[in-house]
Structures are given as C-alpha cells and as structure tokens.
Amino acid sequence: MTKPTFEKLSDLNVDFFESAKTSLLDPLGFSLANDVKWIKLNKNWNSLKFPVVIGGKGPPILLLHGFDSSFLEFRRIYQSLKRNFKVIIPDLLGFGFSPRCATDEYNPSKIISCLIDLLQTLQITKNLNIIGASMGGSTALKLSFEIPDSINKIILLSPAGLFGEPKSIPFPLNQIGALFLGLPQVRKSLCRQAFAFPNECVGEMEEQIASIHLDCKGWRNSLASFAKSGGFAGTHKYIQNIPIKAVCGENDRILGKKEIKKIRKIDKLNFLGLKNCGHLPHVDLPSLSSKIIEDYFLEKNS
Asked: In angstroms, rounded to a whole number, what is the distance separating the alpha carbons of residues 282 and 293?
C-alpha cells in the first residue's frame, strides 16, 4: 500500500470521528472529544495521525482505556483532572478511533511500542503518572516495565489481564468472535454488565459511548488480530518498585470476586475496594475516583 493510500485511509478515519463527535448525546463526551489532537507518529506507523486527548497543565497523566473501548470512557473524570494535571488520553493502537492502517498486526507488543513513540513525540520522558482501566491496567504495567525511569506512579482501575497466560484465538474463530462483539444486543449487554446498577445508570448515552467507534474502518479486523495474538495476560509479573494503587469496585461482575480476591492479595498493589461500584470506577463513581487519583498522584513519594 502506497503512502498516499495510507494517508487517504487515515483521513477517512478522521472524517468519521468528526462526524461521530457531532452525534454524541453525552455532553461530557462531546466536551472531551473537542480536546482531541491528531498526533502524527513516525514511519513505524506509516506517519499517520492518531487521536489523543490533551488538556490541562501540571504533572502529566497518561490514561489508558480498556478492551474494545476508546478515550471516551474517561469523560466523567477528565474535567476534574485537567485542573491539576496535563491529561493525555490516547486511543490504544487498533482500538477506538485509531487508524487501522498503521500496521498489519494488532497485539500487546505493538500497542506498547506505539505508546512509547507517542510519549517521545510529546516529549514526555519523566515524572509520568499512569491510569490504566481494565485492560488498560495490564497495558500500564507492561509500559512501566519498558520505560521504568519515566514513571512516577500508577493507578490501576479494575485491572484485567494480570493473571493467566495469553490464549490465542485462531482464524476463523477470531473473526467470528469480533462479529459477535459487534452485535447491538451484545454491546448493550456488555455495557450494562460494566455498571454496578445498570437499571438506574445505563441509558442511551452510555450505550452510544460503548459502541460509537465500531463503524471505524477496519474495526472488526483489528479486533480479530488482537484476539489472535492472545492479548494481555499474566502482566502482574511486570510489577516493579514503582508506587501502585489498585482500585476495584465491589460490584464488579466482569472481573468477578475470585479475580478481585487475587488482586487484593498482591501487597504491592495497595488495594482499595469501592462500595456500590462496578467494573468502571471512573464512570460509576467519578467524583470519588477523581479525588483518589488527585490525592495519590499529588502526594509526595515516601
């Protein structure tokens, strides 16, 4: 594929995002989307532009979303955090609104390499705080393992993928699985499962946020490629001496009680459980989550 062809596909992605942005029902999502910058990365990524929310001033915080999600999942804590921090929220490679023509492979290694190149492009080389939600928690641990001298502290919000081994889903099961995850009723069910009290908290706005990126060109193939790679698993082995706090909802039906119990047992994770909270503390309890984040990152290391 020629460079002009890559750029044309990337422009289609940008056009789709701009159109999708205007349709957002959630005012917080719309406000967050307005702070997206399209950051051009190096030739490793065909010199394409990637969507990155950048806002606020202060110590840098990198926010990493979960599996098959987008930067929009941080809409409820963004305005609070940008008062004290420089907030950076990328769409992970192969997810959200990122250009799917950047590579032929979508796997954990490529995701980490892309994040490192992004941080270098933004000239962020030290004192970086990271928030990783769900799969973003595993991403945060692997990234910190690769660039430990750049990291100050980490917060894991209901981290997924800390245990077990990667399990590759071969063709055609990976494609079938991606098709299944694209079904409207499946999306609706998964969205509801993420909340502690879906009957009270999930409506049209939440369901739209969970699915709005599915019409990005190449969504199904990138998801299938990631599934074939085995995804993130066993990332607790990357825990180092960097200060970490793990925050989990006590009503998390996605991780489940057994997984949360294993997380609680890891002393270095400084576990904190939240009542009346599901798999997304930053969505279910945004005010409390923001305070926990601000207090932890602004507190001086002991």
From this structure: 10
